[in-house]
Amino acid sequence: MGSIEMETMLSIRTDWSREEIAELFDLPFTELLFRAATIHRENHPPEQIQLCTLLSIKTGGCPEDCGYCSQSVKAHSGVEATKLMDVQAVLQRAAQAKDAGSQRFCMGAAWRNPKDRDMPAIVEIVKGVSDMGLETCMTLGMLEPHQAEMLAEAGLDYYNHNIDSSPEYYERVISTRDFQCRLDTLGHVRSAGINVCSGGIVGMGETRDDRVGFIHTLATLPEHPESVPVNALVPVKGTVLGDMLADTPMAKIDDIEFVRTVAAARITMPMSMVRLSAGRESMSEATQALCFLAGANSIFTGDKLLTAPNAGDDSDGALLAKLGMTALQGDEPARACKVSEPAE
To answer: The domain 16-327: what is its CATH number?
Structure first.
C-alpha cells in the first residue's frame, strides 16, 4: 500500500493523488473491502441504507449528445419528449411519496440547462415539496449563478450534477459541453449554499485509469460532494454506448471492478453518501451486498430510473430483509439523487 496508512485514510482529505487512488484499486480485493468497511463504520451506521423516491418532471428532448442517454435528441431510443409537469401534479406525487414513508423527494428535467422562464415553476415546486416536510433534490442540467441562488432561496437541499467520467474519457462520451462546464455548475451550486451531489457512470468502455481519474476529480474538490452516485451503465438500444456494448460486450465492467470503484469512493470521501445507483437491476444480490460492505449506503427504489428498469420496492425490501439491513433512520441529512419516469 505504500505510504497510505489506515489512520491517514480515516481523516478527510482533498489532496489525494492519482497514484494513491490507483494503489487503492490495486489492493487485494478483501483488503480493499476491509479498509472501506472500516472507514464506513467510522462515519455511518453500517446496517442502514438510505432510500429515495424519484421523479422525472420533464422527460426527453435534451439537445445534449451524451452517449449513454436515451433522452438525448441524438438517440434513437423511442423516448418521446414531454413538457415540464404541472406544479400541482408534481406536488401530488410528492405527497404520495411522503404517505409511502419517503423522507426525500428528488426531481429532474432533461434539459441542457433551465431557461429563466422555467425557474418560477421550479421554485414553486421546490417550495411546495419543502413545505410538506420532505427534503428536496433537483437535477436540471447546467446552472447559472443566479439560478443556483434562486434554488437556494427556494429552500432546495441538494443539486445533482454528475461529472460522468474522468476528464480524459469525458470527451469520448459527450461533445456538446466540456468537462469544465460540469465543474462550473458544481461551483455555482456550492457557492449558493446548496449541498452537492455528483458522481458518474462506470462500464462505458473506460479503463481503470479513467475510473481512478473519476474518483480523483471528486475527492480533490475543495469540499467533497455530500452525495456520490456510482452508476453502472445500463445499455439502451439506440444510444451510442448501448449499441457499442451490444457489439462489444466485453467492454461491460465486471462486478468485482464495480465494487472496487465503490470502495475507492468510500475511502477517499468518508463522509459522503455513496449511492448505489443505476444498474442494480442486473446485479446479483451478492454483488449488491458487496457494494454495501464496500461503503454504499443509499439506493434508488422503484421500478424505473430514467428510461431504464430498476429493481423495484418489493425486491429491495426483500434484499434488505435478507441482509438484516434497514432503511436509514433518524436525522441523517438528505443527499441528492437521480430521476425516474413520470406517471402515465
So the answer is: 3.20.20.70
